[in-house]
Amino acid sequence: MDKMMRIGRKLKTYLENRRAIRELSELDDRALSDLGVSRHNLRAAVEGRR
User: Fold this and answer.
1) Contact 29, 39 (CB under 8 A)
2) pTM of whole model > 0.70?
3) CB 17 within 8 A of CB 46
């Protein structure tokens, strides 16, 4: 695969993850708890590293 395509895909994933983290961070602690996520591990949860 072309190097630029890999970079583009990584950038797209990074931006999507940032958006998901931002949206999840807007939820209150109870809603996050209902999802099984705590505020301090949002990034890990979004990246699938729970």
Assistant:
1) yes
2) yes
3) yes
